[in-house]
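note to self — DONT lose this again. spent like an hour looking for the file last time. sequence + predicted structure for the chain T wanted, 138 res
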Amino acid sequence: SGEPQLAFTVSEQEPVQTTRDSGLNLVLTADSLGSLKAGDPVLFRQVKVGEVLGSDLAADGKQVAIYINVWPAYAAHVHSKSRFWNVSGIRVKAGLFSGVKVDTESVESLIAGGIAFDASPESGAASEGQTFTLHDKE
């Protein structure tokens, strides 16, 4: 409706996808993005149950907002007090007497990175658009 438009403003940056029509859309906040990117998996018990949609600076500019979608079949596993953590890459601990310990969530997260979460069923279901903190480790 309205008058035909003859001039348009073009953005140099593609808009950030923040939601999908199906599934459970959530927002995670973190101090920095690290190696996370759109398309990285969201994992529950090392099973891919969703994906990272995109990221942007939070409104206050002090944190990063990471938008994720958990597929409809798995949305019931996310609860209001679920804990999310970054499983991107590999963690190595080395000590003179303890040796070397290599830790990664899964082969997929080693290659692609990702986010994992736990269930807290006693806390009730998570709600659409709910915000959680993204922790550095489990």
